[in-house]
Amino acid sequence: MLITRISMRRLIILSLVALSLSLIVVFKPVFSLAQRLTPTPSLTPVATVEPTSTPEAVFDLTQKTPQTLGPLEEILNKQKLGKIALNPVKYAIRGAVEAGVPANTIVLLLLLPISAFVIAVTRNIIGIRGFGIFLPAALSVVFVAIGPVVGISLFLLIVVISTLVRLTLRKFKVKLLYLPRMALILWAVVIGVLGVLFSAPLIKSASLTNVSIFAVLILILLAEDFIRVQLGKSVKTAISLTSETLLIALVSFFFLTLKPLQNFVLLNPEITLLVTGVLDIILAKYSGLRLMEIWRFRKLINN
């Protein structure tokens, strides 16, 4: 019975991950196509050349590009500030942006508490576990920077390399201390990631060519947690926790890329910070059953 419950839990988690990836992969090109097909006024039906710039930069909040900063700064310029006593954060944001602080950085900082709250809800209300709260939040930012498909692909590559190195050391009975062993695994991971980056001219992926060291480090941290759980508990537990972490990060990624939410937090920072803090306190008081626990014990509850 316990094995059946664990298998059902893992099946649910993997299905949710697959569904989230499918929605992202399917709907993102649709949104991009809708933007490209929006009619623009023209005087004469002259043939135009399709621009070569990639539209993905519009959705990348981690980059200081004109496509990212332009709309945010335009929203700030159109905003009418009220009294400074009631809107101190708005005045602070306006002054910081005028001083040269990127608006996308401010938006990301305002969105991070919301991302943390969403992760806490998935754990305390739904019952999805994972590797803490900071790692899924950082992983969701990585997905914003390089895309969920490339991010998960790189993570799977890192996990495969790490597992192969660990199994090789075990097979040849090479005993190493924990930190030297992790350093050796990191050495192998770097070689593998470099191999993928060196093949970028053949793959021709814009997201892959924009991979930063920050994204690789976060993925390596997740792989380290995977290996630690794999060594301390079991492979099944490591796969389950890693899948749930990826699912939580995908949910957080969805909220981080919501354009209306980005505009709202930028225009209403006081409300955002206050409401998020209050919701965190309310969530901390919750002590009921999680949804996955209700599903697990549904027969007992019905009886």
How does this model look, in words?
This protein is mainly alpha-helical. It has 15 helices and no strands. The protein has one domain. It is 75% helix and 0% strand. The two termini are 18 Å apart. The chain has helices at 2-36, 66-78, 88-98, 103-126, 134-146, 148-171, 178-198, 200-203, 206-209, 213-232, 235-256, 259-267, 269-284, 291-296, 298-302. It is flat and about 70 Å long. The model is unreliable at 1-6 and 22-58 (pLDDT under 50).
How would you sum up this structure in a few lines?
It is built from 15 helices and no strands. By secondary structure, the protein is mainly alpha-helical.
Key terms:
single chain, 303 residues, mainly alpha, 15 helices, disordered N terminus
Please report the number of helical segments.
15
Total count of domains:
1
Q: What sort of overall outline do the alpha carbons produce when their principal axes are compared?
A: flat
Average pLDDT works out at: 79
Series of secondary-structure elements, N-terminal to C-terminal:
HHHHHHHHHHHHHHH
Number of E-state strands: 0
Distance between the termini: 18 Å
Extract low-pLDDT stretches: 1-6, 22-58
| Helical content band | over 70%
Question: What class do helices, strands and sheet pairing give?
Answer: mainly alpha
Q: What is the oligomeric state here?
A: single chain
